[in-house]
Amino acid sequence: MSPDEPFDDGVAARAVIAADGTLTEWNEGARRLLGHPADEVVGRPAARLLADGADAPPTPVDARWSGTLRLRHRDGRTLSVWVLAHRRPPDGPGITDWLAVAPPEMPDHDASVDPLLRAALTQSPCATMIFDERLRLHGVNDAMADLVGLPADRLRGLRPTDIGSRPQSRELEEHLRRVLRTGRRQDMQTYMKATGEDRGPHAWLARIAPLTDDAGRVRGVCVTAHDFSEQYRSRERLQLVNEASVRVGTTLDVTRTAQELADVCVPALADFVSVDLLEPPAQGGEPSGPPAPPVSLRRAAHQSVNPGSPEAVAKPGQVDVYPEGSPQAASLVAGHTVVASGSSADLERWLAWDPVRFRRVREYGIHSTMSVPLQARGTTLGVAVFTRFRRPEPYTDDDVLLAEEVTARAAVCIDNARRYSRERETTLALQRSLLPRTLPRTAAVEAASRYLPAIRSGVGGDWFDVIPLSGMRVAMVVGDVVGHGIQASATMGRLRTAVRTLADIDLAPDELLTHLDDLVVRLSQESGGGDPGAGEVGATCLYAVYDPVSRRCTLARAGHPQPLLVPPDGPARQLDLPSGPPLGVGGLPFECAEVDLREGSVLAFHTDGLLAGRDRDVDASRSMLREALSAPADSLDETCDRVLHALLPPGGSADDVALLLARTRGLPSSQVATWDIPADPALVAPIRKQVVDQLERWGLLDATFTAELVVSELVTNAIRYGAPPIRLRLIHDATTLICEVSDTNHTAPHLRRAKTWDEGGRGLLLVAQLTQRWGSRHTTEGKTIWAELALLDEA
User: Fold this and answer.
1) Rounded to whole angstroms, how far apart are CA atoms 416 and 407?
2) Strands across the sheet with 773-778, in order?
3) Alpha carbons 477 and 556: distance in angstroms, whole number
4) DSSP readout, 401-454?
5) Which of 173, 271, 458, 572 is disulfide-compatible with 160, CB 3.0–4.6 A?
6) Closest residue by Cα to residue 327 from 378, 365, 267, 384
């Protein structure tokens, strides 16, 4: 006891008995009652104080016992003493001392008090108790005696901590002392079960007021207890609804939202909560109408007052089937809440069908369940089941209303998360269909790529591509459409298609970006419906063309991050390219830059999502990127993985990320042959002979016949319709032979079908039939006609 709670106040007889029955404390009031000084009884068994032949008190089943004992006085007399005993608050593990108290003799009330007034005080429905200046209970009325669970005449002279060992008794005594000291009223709220009641705990408001004499001096304290359980529960319900509105739906993740619903309702509303969701229709779309039993439900989340949720039969992610008699199926079919007790016939039939659940119900004493369907926007999503086994009271109508309100809020959040997940999956599928599944194998570069969608803001419009061009060249492109969602993905698909179309006619990088800028401007106008700014489309892009023969790379960018270059024998560095405006600005020029690359150099292209770290600036991210690219690796795929691991958080990036790495290859001069052709048709035959000799030296005799015909047609066409100087070039690798004829005439040829009586016009048609593909490209000097022949695989 604290100094304010003297054990030895010399009034009530008090003794402390240890768990083994030994007396450990003995106060002056006990000595005055039985005559034994403390040194004669402390440390000895308390049973020695019982009179000869007296029965020992029975072993208490609760934390309190009261009754009359026959005790032995020191002078040999036998006294019948009413004793109140209760467990003291533990001072440590395993400490189970008992405090035994015998009330002191108190004088009778003044008989001159009006009998009607005395009856009113005693029989008032408001529980009342009076304490004197020494905090001794001076009197209680019948309502308070019923609340305490002890006879009124036995309580007089005791302090609150003598009557009970609950923490509320100690708290009440502290409030009483404060009122005695200050003379000001105080209120105390507590939540406890009245002694001897079968009902659950109640909320109590204790109004503590000082009692003064005519001179205004505080002579005692009056305590009245008021049951405000309804108001308390209403406040609890309101608080739970407020918490649900804040804590449920913090993310657009279905499982996380279901778990938040279970967490917020335990233990405020239930001892165990499970959230099970209906499986989506196999053909997609929304479920039609209520499900028919048996119902298959997938466990999304559960929570319990017991760590680890041992009551759960199904694990998260597991599908369970609920028959017609189960509360889950009944509530889903009916479309409203179903409350069932452990003794209901329907519940017993279901449990008899499910022995595992039957054992859990018996093991944990589950006595009441409440099954609430999760419904949002006219769609049934699943069911939330609230279970009680630790709280003794069954579910009430107010509990049903509360559960329905909380689950209604959660159902909307789950439906939002479900719709978002479905849209995200659709957008991802669209984007995967628009992005290249695999990168083409070319003689110019070895390439590897990675694409990661944003984890929260939805799929965006990042894209990349590797496009084979004529003359063994290759184009590499990386772009980023502003925004997220299906619209951004669709715009990305249109831009990627446009880039491939423009690349097919071999435009220079700056010209290609100019045409792409015009397209984005038109897309903005179309999506805005004529309203400026209503549907603006923006994008950034970087386009590069690498020629393995000259080993030169030409690049241009439109508002896109700078690429990085990793030389074969040096650290990564950033390429300094002219800054171009983002696509969609319109009217501004783009500039090209040329870079000579050694064989084995690595070009790194990326979108800005790779550098957008929340806990670091862009310069730090660039430094980390250079470090990750510079580290040695066995393959480009390994380098891609290392870059993403170094720059992205474990959960993923807040923005889309596209990464493209390309290691350059050089074509040896021995695989290229060039001839300057005089503008004389008579010299076509010697040129064919030189081509045949060159192919023989290359060991490509199988391609001689076709190549001779193609060269003859292209050279003849250049001599007849082109302008000198004319040049023939042959390029080959392991799989392809390319024939190129260049002249200074800018007019491009076109394929036409010759009539029967036409003397010419069949050359390009013949070339188209004999080759794998053919085409033309414009150069600064004129044009180049090219044709590719597939070489036979000798293996």
Assistant:
1) 14
2) 672-677, 726-732, 736-743, 783-790, 773-778
3) 10
4) HHHHHHHHHHHHHHHHHHHHHHHHHHHHHHHHHHS-SSPPP-SSEEEEEEEE--
5) 173
6) 384
* Burial class, 471, CB count within 10 angstroms (exposed 0-12 / middle 13-18 / buried 19+): buried
In the block, which residue shows the tokens 């926007």?
377
Alpha carbon distances (Å) from 83 to 75, 140, 150, 195: 20, 18, 11, 17
H or E element: which one contains 118? helix 115-123
Tracing tokens 């508002």 back to the chain, one arrives at: 559
Q: Are 283 and 262 in contact (CB under 8 A)?
A: no
In the chain, what percentage of residues exceed pLDDT 70?
A: 86
Token pair in block for residue 32: 């005055």
C-alpha 44/C-alpha 48 separation (Å) is: 8
> How would you label 749-768 residue by residue, b for 16+ Cβ within 10 Å and e otherwise?
beeeeeeeeeeeeebbeebe
Phi, psi for 443 (deg, rounded to 5): -80, -15
Q: Which residue has the tokens 């001897």?
A: 196
Rounded Cα distance between 180 and 209, Å, is: 9
Q: Report the C-alpha gap between 243 and 253 in whole angstroms.
A: 19
pTM: 0.58
d(CA 256, CA 274): 13
Q: Which residues pair with 157 in a beta bridge?
A: none
pLDDT digits (tens, 9 = 90+) for 743-768: 988 877 765 544 444 444 566 778 88
Token pair of 394, please? 């069954």
Cα R_g (the chain), whole angstroms: 46
* Contacts of residue 119, Cβ cutoff 8 Å, sequence gap at least 6: none
Sign of the torsion angle spanned by Cα atoms 295, 299, 302, 307: positive
Contact indicator for 66, 82 with CB cutoff of 8 Å: yes
Helix 684-698 vs helix 704-721: crossing angle, to nearest 10: 150
Q: Is the pLDDT of residue 347 over 80?
A: no
